[in-house]
Amino acid sequence: MRRERSARRLTGIGFDGYAIGGLAIGEGQETTFAMVEATVPFLPADRPRYLMGVGKPADLVGAVKRGIDMFDCVLPTRSGRTAQAFTRTGTLNLRNAGHADDASPLDPECRCPACTGFSRAYLHHLVKAGEILAAMLLTTHNLTYYADLMAAMREAIAQGRLANFQVPT
Ligand SMILES: [Zn+2]
Question: Does residue 108 carry a pLDDT above 90?
Answer without folding.
Answer: yes
